[in-house]
Amino acid sequence: RLAAPGAAMLRRSLWLCLCLCSCPARGLRIHEYLYFQVLSPGDIRYIFTATPAKDFGGVFNTRYDQIHLVPADPPEACGELNNGVFIQDQIALVERGGCSFLSKTRVIQEHGGRAVIIADNAYDNDSFYIEMIQDSTRRTADIPALFLLGRDGYMIRRSLEQHGLPWAIISIPVNITSIPTYEMMQPPWTFW
C-alpha cells in the first residue's frame, strides 16, 4: 500500500531531524555528525562535517563562537609538540597516522587543548569517515575527538600556509538546522 505524499515527507523530515539534531546536555551519539565553521581565513569560510570518536573522548557541552583551530607541529601529534603552548585552551588540528587516535587525543589533552580534530592523512578522501575507536591500552581521554575528511583537513592547512597564519578561527559546534539552506556555505570539493 502506498503512503500519502505528506506522510513520506513527514518521515523524511523526522529522519533528517534525528540525523542532525543533538541535545547539548548529552552530546553526540555514535554515527552522528558535528559541524564547525571556519570564520577565518575567508577563502575557507565553510561549514565542515566531522564525526565524534566511537568509544573515547568527551562531548561538546559548550559552544565556542570564536576559538583557534591550531595545526599541531608535528602534524601527527604522537609525542611532544613544538607548538604546544598555542594549543592550550584551543582546538588542535592533527593528522591521522603514526599512533592511535586515542594517543593523539591524549597528547592534545596533556597540552591543555579543549578538543582535537583528526584529519585523515589520505588527502583525496572527500567522502569516507573513519570510525575512531579505543586502542588496547585501557587509557582514557576527556576532551572531544573528531574525525575530519582528508580533503577538508588538507584544504584548511593549505589555506593557513598560503596566508602565513598559525591557526584558523572557527565556531564549533554549529547547529545547521537553524541555517537557511541558501546560506549554507559548504566546501565546494565535498559532497553532502
Biggest sheet statistics: 7 strands, mixed, barrel
- Integer-rounded radius of gyration: 17 Å
Number of separate helices: 4
What is the CATH C-level name?
Answer: Alpha Beta
The CATH architecture classification is 3-Layer(bba) Sandwich
Spatial ordering of strands, largest sheet:
1-2-6-5-4-3-7
Structural class: alpha/beta
What does the overall shape look like?
A: globular
CATH topology: Glucose Oxidase, domain 1
Distance between the termini: 32 Å
Rounded mean pLDDT score? 85
Protein name: Protease-associated domain-containing protein 1
Pfam family, one: PA
Organism: Phaetusa simplex (large-billed tern)
Function: Plays a role in the modulation of physical activity and adiposity.
How would you sum up this structure, described in words?
It is found in: Secreted. Residues 69-153 form the PA domain. Keywords: Glycoprotein, Secreted, Signal. Plays a role in the modulation of physical activity and adiposity. Pfam families: PA. This protein has a single domain (34-183), classed as 3-Layer(bba) Sandwich (Glucose Oxidase, domain 1). It has helices at 5-20, 84-87, 101-110, 150-163, and strands at residues 34-40, 47-52, 64-71, 91-95, 115-119, 145-148, 168-172. The protein is globular and about 45 Å long. Mean pLDDT is 85; it is low at 1-30. Strands 1-2-6-5-4-3-7 form a seven-stranded mixed β-barrel. It has 192 residues and is an alpha/beta fold. The protein has four helices and seven strands, in the order H-E-E-E-H-E-H-E-E-H-E.
